[in-house]
């Protein structure tokens, strides 16, 4: 199998790398954090001008018609520079939802704005009691004439602190664990009755908890079919998982590079500690884990790029014996492998740095925080190992 990138993909990677090296260094990141900003509007516009925000959107709606492999290239570059921008939340998950389930009018209104960097969206699906179980949903949407009235709470909405539009999942029928009855609605972040509590996550990205108290939206705000929103959410989360795997690979690569540079200069007993065979073996083990994670990330991206049945194609949640179930197993296997490898690489990097590796001044500590947060997003390694093992036993 040929894993070489096309000429266009190589050009995208190189151009994006130059832009990020120029505008998104570690010092620039620290300045944003000190200023209390969740991202840089200037860098977001530059990403839009480069076409990075439109890489997987349809060409007739301002996109470039790329695939999950193109998204992977962008996310790996972002992971290497540890950017704060809500790329996965807005340009991958939310844009994917709109492209997959939006009406012609909704797509025409929002997708070009997302591609041009003028509009930010975020998926508000997770709830406190759900853990990583996507079917769990208690937020309600009650039909009232030509409107829906929303009540409920959403937690850890990634990118929700700066989003202009929230894609809110709400239950229009069924019980809290039913797969049917999920409805997606486009909600203005400034709508009356909607309250956001913005904060930074441990890795300094922006997020928000959202309260919905009698929030009224028109029927035209429904995204996709009423009561059939869960498979759409599962597909979008699958895109997000693959993108986060790529971001983690980029971050792991930099952790290894930083650690290799450090052990070449840190001296003990008069010699650089990088000359100690035990530390050389540890670095080699870290590199092998990185390549394992990279291989699974490529598999996940190529699986999504190949199309076919969606992750949630069957009634059992996409985990049966059909093609949709196979696709879910690949994504879960990749997410589990990347989570496990990220933990190994991060712990090794911190240990080889010694005490300095635990400080805010050390870049490696920030990379390890980001990789750890990625593991916890959309299901950690243990969660996805369980999903794969359950599927194999069916």
In summary, what is this structure?
Helix content is 51%, strand content 15%.
Q: Topology, pairings included?
A:
Elements: H1 7-23, H2 26-34, H3 41-50, H4 68-81, H5 87-101, H6 104-115, E1 121-124, E2 140-144, E3 147-158, E4 165-171, E5 182-188, E6 194-200, E7 206-218, E8 222-223, H7 230-265, E9 267-268, E10 271-272, H8 277-305, H9 323-353, H10 363-376, H11 381-393
Parallel strand pairs: 1-4
Antiparallel strand pairs: 2-3, 3-7, 4-5, 5-8, 6-7, 9-10
Give a structural overview.
By secondary structure, the protein is α+β, with helices and mostly antiparallel strands. It folds into 3 domains: about 110 residues, Butyryl-Coa Dehydrogenase, subunit A, domain 1 (Orthogonal Bundle); about 100 residues, Butyryl-CoA Dehydrogenase, subunit A, domain 2 (Beta Barrel); about 160 residues, Butyryl-CoA Dehydrogenase, subunit A, domain 3, CATH 1.20.140.10. Helix content is about 50%, strand content about 15%. It has 11 helices and 10 strands. A 4-stranded mixed sheet has the order 1-4-5-8, covered by helices on one side. A 4-stranded antiparallel sheet has the order 2-3-7-6, with no helix packed on it. A hairpin with a 2-residue loop joins strand 2 and strand 3. It is globular, with a radius of gyration of 21 Å. It starts with 6 loop residues before the first helix and ends with a helix. About 50% of the residues are buried.
